[in-house]
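User: Show me an example of a complex going from sequences to structure tokens.

Assistant: Sure. Here are the input components:
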Amino acid sequence: MTNDSVVTIQNLVKQFPVGGDFFTALKDLSLTINKGEFTGLIGPSGSGKTTLLNIIGGLDSPTKGKVSVLGQALNDTSHGERARLRRKYMGFIFQSYNLLPVYTVFENVELPLILNKMDTDERRSMVEQAVESVGLTDKMDSRPNMLSGGECQRTAIARAIVHQPALVLADEPTANLDAENSHHIMKILVRLNQELSTSFIFATHDEKIMAYLRRIIHLDDGEITEDEIIDNPKARD
Amino acid sequence: MLFKIALKNLLGARLRTFLNVLVTAFSFFLILFMSAMYDGMLQHAKQVTMDTEIAGGAYWHPEYDPLDPMKFEDAHSALPAEIQSLVDQKKAFPVLVSQASIYPGGRIMPAIMKGIPPDQNIVNMPTGALAGHDDISIPVLIGKGMASDTKLKVGDVFTIRWLDADRTYDADEGTVVHIMDTENFKLDMGHIWIPLKKAQTMLAMEQEATYVTYEKGLPTVQDKGGWIPRDINYLVQDMEAIIEADKPGAIIMYMIILALAAMGIFNAQVLSIFRRGREIGTLMAIGMTRQRVVGLFTLEGGLNAVLAAVATLIFFGPILWYFGANGIPLPIDYSEMGMIMAKRLMPIYTIGLIVSTTVLVSVVVLIVSYIPSRRISRMQPTDALRGKVVA
């Protein structure tokens, strides 16, 4: 692992019990993702994208192999330590937004800061900044059921980046959005990537996203089939 | 921090929280109300017994046993000097007890005949009604229940037969001069009350009595002459035994209502955990530990109890206050069933009752909130994010 790497994976295998047998979702997979990368895990359904993302996020455990995220070996950490890692250094963006329905935009975005025990004034200023960066200042007091799909996802992005994490994991973040909203969301994420030097890892098969990525890791049947570096992503021009 | 999130979750859930809180508050209200009614009923029974029968206590003839009528004929004598002195000072009054048979409407009925001074004002009995009936052979005071059993009305004449001190049976006509409406069935059922002097003459027991009831606040006399002092504690012990015997029933009722409240909360929690699987996953993904999520859900359940206490005060407080102030009229007269019960039941809300009910409901709610929440600790974040909950 270099000083710049945020994720280092060596010989990762992930198996799920199915009936009396095991299904291997990830097969002897190794990769490194460096600080500030804007990376996509691309592949068809069942290729292992989400499983890999969940393991990187410490939401799931590897069956074999070594996974190190932000310098911490996940194999040796407890549930609590992984929760702390996520709380302090990671952000998550989900396909179906996963906003808490009873909270307003402000409260949803504020939640990671509350978990990090920040004081009220600091929280308010950070939330306002995050909400402003996704263009939702006028929706601060709205609940998720009053927002459009695009606005919900922007709220989820604000929640993911409000504590300025080192790594943001996004699972199909544009799957439920139309083309216009998808581009809008991706432009926001590209800007945040540039401004905050936050590393982004996407699990997607959406071509609109691919047009923004600087690195595309192709997965098929639990194996990396191709790892391309894109010097000039099309959509960024 | 958890408290703030739990409160936000509860208040944010609006209708769901409102319904949960309302159900808990209703159970809270029922427990409080029923316990207060029960306490009120028992307190009333005790008070009525003291007002109408016991006063400050009594001195019993050594042979007197109210539960053994066969011994009444031996349970009489002249009063010891110090006790007689209390009677002379109108601080006590004597009662002469004997067995009798009465023949209302040609039927024979056993009765306890008690001679009491008409001018006594130590117990709340309308004994004054026995005074001034020189034209009547035996003026008789009976209770409503006895009147109903014997079908006697004021002015009705019936035969009374008794055994006097010489072991001779005698009989005469008694006339009902008053029917008293008393809540104490012990003064009513099976009893006929006549003037003391008349009873002493009839029984050939001049200046004699079976027991003496004295007013409240009097110390026990020094020379009791062998008579047995019976204080309030002794005289209400049968009442307390009834109360004690009733307790299991009250506790069962209490438990049933509490179980209903607990089941409501338990169901709400289970449903909540199933419905909020994705939310649980999200909380774990943004860094909340499983233990904290369990704590959060338990706290939400616990806060239900707090909100329920407030809701009870707001929604049911006025009802509790109204019944506390005005009581609840009972549709039937329970004294005929051998129960001392007020015509209007007044619930008694003691601090002890309110505090113990609040603590008990809160603890139960906390436990039933925790039990379903424990399954969160077995949940995989990835399963929770998919809304898949461990059964």
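The lines above are the inputs; the final block is the predicted structure for all two components together. The CA atoms of residues 71 and 145 of chain B lie 25 Å apart.
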